[in-house]
Each structure stands twice: as C-alpha cells, then as structure tokens.
Specification:
By secondary structure, the protein is an alpha/beta fold. It folds into 2 domains: about 110 residues, 3-Layer(aba) Sandwich (Oxidized Rhodanese, domain 1); about 60 residues. It is built from 8 helices and 7 strands. The strands form 2 sheets. It has a 5-stranded parallel β-sheet. Strands 3-7 form a two-stranded antiparallel sheet. Helix 4 links the parallel strand 5 and strand 6.
Length: about 180
Amino acid sequence: MKEINVFELKNKLEEDQNKKILLVDVREFAEHEEEHIENSKLFPTSEITEEKIKELIKETKDKEIILYCKSGMRSQNALNKFLCCNVENVCILKGGIDSWKSQNFNTKKKASIISLDRQVQLVLGILILLFSLLSIFISKIFLIFLIFISCGLIFAGSTGKCGLAILLARMPFNKK
C-alpha cells in the first residue's frame, strides 16, 4: 500500500514551491465544506470514475497525488481505483484528516453545514424514536423497521459503508 504519514506530508507541502503536489479530499461535499486541509481539491469517492481520473491526470500532469479522507478507508478505495487506471504517482494520507488534526496541523473550517456524521445520527435518532413510539402505541409491526435500522447500523459498523450517509451525501443541501 502506498501511504504517507502526516509529518511527511507536512514537510512535503512546506517544501513544495513548484506546486508538484496535489492534495485530494475524497470525502463528500458536506464533509469537505465543514473542514478540509487547505489547498486540497475535492474529488468525492462516489464520483470517481475512470473517465474522471483521466481528466484529473490531464489537468495535473506530473504532480504527485495524495488522497485523504476522514480516517483512511475511503482513500484506500479511491487509491485502488487510481491504481486500476495505471496511475503511479498516487498515495494516501495514513489516518486521514483525523490524523492531521490530531497533530494540531491547520485545517480550513466552515461551520455552517451540519456534518454528514451528525446528519446520519439525527435521522437515525428520529427514525428510532418514531418507530419505537409507533410500535408501542399503534402496532408491533413497526418493530420490523427498528430491526432494519439495527441491521443497517451493524453493516455500517462492520464494513465502514453507510447507506444512509451515501444517500444524505447526494441530497441537494449537501451539494454545491
């Protein structure tokens, strides 16, 4: 696996006078808007296709591409897509932006959007409360929805892929 730690990245960015490094945030728009490493380009994993990778490579020419996400899982998936397109000069930031922030390195913040994680928590909290009340006061059949939500949470926790987060990321209020 091609990866770089936060200290190596910080040094590279400080020494990069010729702008030979392209830092790419592969999280979704809402996450990037909320906080990102300065001068990074947004390229959400959900939008990465072979065609778009080729376009990015044409734009960036001979730059070294460093991918990052929140903690490293999505950037690993993105790296695999880049490697399938025979892109050699690409690696991931080990530990993602969480690792970057843990060293108190600067990020660019905009607090006007509710983070995707919090949106998921709000929606799930509302759904669990609603279906609990419906199962208590209306019919036990609504317990099926609680089981469905629980299975979704188990799947998200074990795979790192949350269907609700993917759906919310595509909502108009989470787009440019």
